[in-house]
Amino acid sequence: MAAGQDRPINEVRRRDKAVTDEGWIEAFLHSGAWGALATVAEGQPFIHTNLYVYDEGAHAIYLHTAREGRTRSNLERDGRVCFSVSEMGRLLPNEIAAEFSVEYAGVTVFGRCSVVEDDEEKAHGLQLLMDKYAPHLLPERDYRPANQEELNRTSVFRVDIESWSGKKSEKEADFPGAFWYDGVRKPSPFSPGDTR
Ligand SMILES: Cc1cc2nc3c(=O)[nH]c(=O)nc-3n(C[C@H](O)[C@H](O)[C@H](O)COP(=O)(O)OP(=O)(O)OC[C@H]3O[C@@H](n4cnc5c(N)ncnc54)[C@H](O)[C@@H]3O)c2cc1C
User: Fold this and answer.
1) 70 lines ligand 1 (CB under 6 A)
2) Ligand 1, atom 13, residue with closest C-alpha
3) Chain segment 131-155, per-residue pLDDT in tens
4) pLDDT tens-digit map of 62-88
5) I want to staple 53 with a disulfide (CB 3.0 to 4.6 A). Which of 10, 59, 65, 128 is the partner?
6) Which CATH architecture has domain 18-174?
7) Which atom of ligand 1 is nearest to the CA of 155?
């Protein structure tokens, strides 16, 4: 058996980097900008990048897509999912290439994801997304919440969290030569002035 296969799926091998503080994991999920939802269809892995919101009371994650698509069709066949949120910190140079490193933080969630059919819960999940991503805008004051027709053409998904793990690698502020990738990366489609 390959190393690792005999351990629980959410056990972090590098215990020095594991974050077991559930409060930290929850705060990280609350702050994450987007997540990667992994599904599987007939042995073929898929990754779906989405906005998401963590509903602490329900211990669940809500996401949404258009009514039809791969996310929904995969989940209707197999609800097992893995969901990941991560952040990249500074790059950490070293005189030896193999010792180069990076700061990071991440949470991986395992659970079951279902398509939410109940309109009340769909509206709840969508409102939580609005509250997370546009906390400065209020329903009815700044926008009209989804109506029935809009709910009908939207798929809302709920990941019921079964287990999770947190991992973080962070060095001291004055780590020699530490730098941000943004300062050296090639232009992205959203770089100021990029015309692609
Ligand atoms: C940061 C971020 C946040 C997003 N948030 C949302 C969200 O909250 N709701 C939402 O509906 N969509 C969101 N999207 C777009 C999302 O990734 C999907 O394109 C969308 O959800 C449709 O998924 P689907 O499974 O129905 O797509 P389908 O079109 O059915 O997927 C079929 C195939 O299209 C390709 N494909 C689908 N999406 C992408 C992609 N993003 N990039 C490259 N190839 C792709 C893949 O090969 C996939 O197997 C987000 C994208 C990003 C990058």
Assistant:
1) yes
2) 50
3) 999 999 999 999 999 999 999 999 9
4) 999 999 999 999 999 999 999 999 999
5) 128
6) Roll (2.30)
7) 11
